[in-house]
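On clarity, I found the account of how folds are encoded harder to follow than it need be. What matters is that the chain and its backbone geometry are given together, residue for residue. I therefore recommend that a typical entry be quoted early in the introduction. An entry of this sort, consisting of the sequence and the corresponding backbone structure tokens, reads as follows:
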Amino acid sequence: MSADADTPRMKRKVYEKELEKLQVELCYLQEWVKANKIRVIVLFEGRDAAGKGGTIKAITEKVSPRVFRVTALPAPSDREKTQLFLQRYMQHFPAAGEIVIFDRSWYNRAGVEYVMGFCTPAEHKRFLSLCPQMEKYVIEGGIILIKLWLEVGMDEQERRFKARIDDPLRQWKLSPMDTASYQRWYDYSEARDLMLKATSTKQSPWYIVRSDDKRRARLNCIAHLLKLIPYKRIHKNKVKLPKRSAKERFDDQAGLRGMAFVAERY
């Protein structure tokens, strides 16, 4: 149960007004990152149905996918299983002028892999030991690393899972791993606590976001993200459209006559 369980859900109009303000700031952040060749990694972790996907969508809705890249890796292939564990993640790290958002990350090893037995206890222990060292190396290499954990309450997770079962537009979100995570709530709680204790460091802390109210969670995530990156607004000259040239003017619609157009059903 969240600490603000009795707080009324945020109204849609209020949410959309505040989101628009924050999305404008994200556009300013984007220009600053490009101009200064900054590299940023944002990790989103949390329980299933915690709202990671919706929060990422709110962040990326109005910005360029060439700057804000979202990485959501599938289960590793047979070849990837033979690589160093972090190898397949590092190839997606940002170049200059990029922000990479990981929708789940190398912390799979501390969560689903550990709970579901996809890694050995020794591998899990080794990961928790080495992860802070790896992240220290990444940060000292000049990458801004931000780690966000979305925490949804037990009752709210159940409500969201039931809504997915009944909604054909969201049934694809409900996998066997999701139902297993629902069943093993306390195993995941224990894994979360082990992970936070071992990997939340002064240099690379975890930030916890209450997400029972999706709208508040999205706004809080974006506001916190903007606070952590010391960007400044870059003033650019206002774009002016030039006059279209009428030189060699012709009927440019004539070449489309007789072509197969999509039926205008709406």
